[in-house]
Amino acid sequence: MKLKFGTVEEDVVTREEFPLEKAREVLKDEVIAVLGYGVQGPGQALNLKDNGFNVIVGQRKGSKTWDKAVADGWVPGETLFELEEACEKGTILQFLLSDAGQIALWPTVKKHLSPGKALYFSHGFGVTYNDQTGIIPPKDVDVILVAPKGSGTSLRRMFVEGRGLNSSFAIYQDATGKARERVIALGIGVGSGYLFETDFYREVTSDLTGERGTLMGAIQGIFAAQYEVLRENGHSPSEAFNETVEELTQSLMPLVAENGMDWMYANCSTTAQRGALDWWKPFRDASKPVFEDLYKSVKDGKEAAKSIESNSKSDYRVKLEEELKELRESEMWQAGATVRKLRPENN
Ligand SMILES: NC(=O)C1=CN([C@@H]2O[C@H](COP(=O)(O)OP(=O)(O)OC[C@H]3O[C@@H](n4cnc5c(N)ncnc54)[C@H](O)[C@@H]3O)[C@@H](O)[C@H]2O)C=CC1
Ligand SMILES: CC(=O)[C@](C)(O)C(=O)O
Ligand SMILES: [Mg+2]
Ligand SMILES: [Mg+2]
To answer: Full-prediction pTM beyond 0.90?
Structure first.
């Protein structure tokens, strides 16, 4: 359906016009092989299964995530296989290894992409930066994308709660003439709330910008800056954490989610409104050059290169965990751990 987003009209796909029954009909003869069982793998595979699709999981035997898949109800030899066996059995291969991991498995996936199969991604990474990944799909398969706009953990949680996470979808290659109905059916099947169309390049550039920016990188940066200034001016960790993070996540962001920024503002004091309306523009102006540098680094393929380089190392998990530990052990997030314990609902 066509909807106005501000003054721009866009075409979006909802469950109303593409119900689950239609999605099941479109994919009734397909075997959907979910390759990789990290974060997106479980969310998408379990939602598809619960929605009545024919799903198998491919994962390295002997890995922790193999055990997780078994614990989630996937049965070895029936619905859970080694990666290559899943590639052979699937007619739709959902390539949900980490973006760096996809490079190593690509020769195996490629070998099993016989004509008419579909290759599915949840990120435009591998194909867009194929000068770095070597992922160049054969011409006689569909190449499609559904990118849930959030963590696989939320995708699953929201599905279980009867809600839906929004996803983008894209078609890179339509070899069968059915790529469009296949990709939309998969998007509905994995539990999307609604779907908006993009292409692989725009998906990867916006996604890499968003996660490095407001969603993850910039938010931590702005939290740290304010927390430090408060602490340097003699405020206690409790006060600094509450005024920087807790109030935002517990009180104000839920209001933004419900009804927008102006409505959150309107539910705060006129004192706060005056100050926020004065200060948001200086913050925008100070951070915009950083966002411009970030977008350029994404566009030039530098962010992809860094990610491939570091996440291809054999000890990449250990290294990431070390850096996460540093965040976790910072005073701000240690204060956060105590504050979370004090929430009445956690007692
Ligand atoms: N994490 C998320 O919620 C989101 C992820 N995506 C995209 O979905 C895809 C999958 O991402 P995640 O679930 O985060 O992946 P992940 O980092 O959790 O890894 C998925 C699986 O790949 C396996 N793996 C890694 N390297 C391997 C290798 N060399 N050989 C065999 N297996 C290997 C891991 O063991 C794991 O089971 C990526 O394209 C990502 O950009 C998109 C939206 C959100
Ligand atoms: C959750 C998501 O959509 C991210 C942040 O882009 C990702 O995990 O890559
Ligand atoms: Mg994303
Ligand atoms: Mg991402």
So the answer is: yes
Sheet (strand 142-148) strand order: 2-5, 8-14, 192-197, 165-173, 142-148, 118-121, 92-95, 32-35, 55-58, 80-81
Atom in ligand 1 nearest the alpha carbon of residue 59: 37
Confirm or deny that 247 is annotated as ligand binding: yes
Cβ proximity of 31 and 112 under 8 Å: no
The catalytic position among 49, 117, 123, 212 is 123
Tell me the DSSP string of 302-340.
HHHHHHHHHHTSTTHHHHHHHHHHHHHTSHHHHHHHHHH
Residue 123 bears catalytic tag? yes
List the chain pLDDT tens, one digit each, 347 residues. 999 999 999 999 999 999 999 999 999 999 999 999 999 999 999 999 999 999 999 999 999 999 999 999 999 999 999 999 999 999 999 999 999 999 999 999 999 999 999 999 999 999 999 999 999 999 999 999 999 999 999 999 999 999 999 999 999 999 999 999 999 999 999 999 999 999 999 999 999 999 999 999 999 999 999 999 999 999 999 999 999 999 999 999 999 999 999 999 999 999 999 999 999 999 999 999 999 999 999 999 999 999 999 999 999 999 999 999 999 999 999 999 999 999 999 98
Q: Is 322 annotated as a binding residue?
A: no
Q: Which residues have C-beta within 8 Å of that of residue 29, sequence separation ≥ 6?
A: 91
Cα distance between residue 316 and residue 303, in whole Å: 16
Burial 139-166 (b: 16+ CB within 10 A, else e): eebbbbbbbbbeebeebbebbeeeebbe
Give residue 207 CA to ligand 3 midpoint distance, Å.
5
Please give the Cα distance from 278 to 63 (Å, whole number): 53
